[in-house]
């Protein structure tokens, strides 16, 4: 079911804590004739976004690939470039694993001239931001001492990933073709 579109589908893959919200805010402000931003809007609006449709397909909430491609093709009739951004594609959730989501994303992407944009961030630089975001929900002993949280999650020589510690965001190996990578 290869699309006849000659445009390019850009898929930005978060993951959380890599500047995704700022990136999405910037992208939604771009006003060019050949450009359609179908990603999550900031602040989140709840309106029907193309990225939500893609996310629902990738997470198994909607199995209608033809409809997803129809919606993408609809936008390609007017725009040469479509940009999707959804950080939750790289987050394991109860009923949909990261691997399942990315496998289904590859099925969509195979129908288009697709460019992946992947942003990573070292574990060490994620922790302060994550800690600040989650501070209120942490147990009291962790609220008082960031050092106890950072030492628990610090990189280790056993069980680590190519990008750093145990919890490093290193999902690039799940995608094919090779995504564009940005290290911040």
Shape: globular
* Tally of separate helices: 7
Question: H/E series, N to C?
Answer: EHEHHEHEHHHE
Q: Structural class, judged by helices and strands? A: alpha/beta
User: How much helix, percentage-wise, in residues?
Assistant: 25-40%
Query: How many domains comprise the coordinates?
Result: 2
Rg from alpha-carbon coordinates: 18 Å
Which sequence of strands runs across the widest sheet?
2-3-1-4-5
Give the percentage of residues in beta strands: 5-15%
Spans of at least 5 consecutive residues with low confidence: 153-184
How many β-strand runs? Answer: 5
Cα-to-Cα separation, first versus last residue: 36 Å
Q: Could you tell me the mean pLDDT?
A: 74
Largest sheet: 5 strands, parallel
């Amino acid at each position: 079911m290869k699309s006849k579109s000659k445009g390019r589908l850009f898929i930005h893959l978060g993951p959380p804590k890599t500047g995704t919200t700022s990136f999405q805010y910037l992208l939604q402000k771009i006003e060019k004739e050949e450009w359609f931003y179908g990603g999550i809007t900031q602040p989140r609006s709840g309106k029907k976004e193309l990225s939500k449709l893609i996310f629902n397909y990738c997470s198994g909430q909607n199995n209608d690939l033809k409809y997803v491609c129809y919606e993408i093709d609809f936008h390609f009739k007017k725009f040469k470039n479509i940009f999707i951004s959804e950080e939750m594609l790289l987050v394991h959730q109860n009923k949909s694993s990261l691997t399942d989501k990315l496998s289904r994303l590859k099925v969509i992407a195979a129908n288009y001239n697709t460019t992946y944009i992947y942003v990573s961030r070292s574990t060490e630089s994620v922790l302060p931001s994550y800690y600040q975001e989650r501070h209120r929900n942490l147990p009291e002993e962790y609220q008082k001492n960031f050092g106890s949280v950072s030492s628990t999650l610090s990189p280790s020589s056993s069980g680590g990933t190519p990008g750093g510690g145990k919890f490093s965001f290193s999902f690039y190996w799940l995608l094919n073709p090779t995504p564009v990578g940005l290290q911040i």
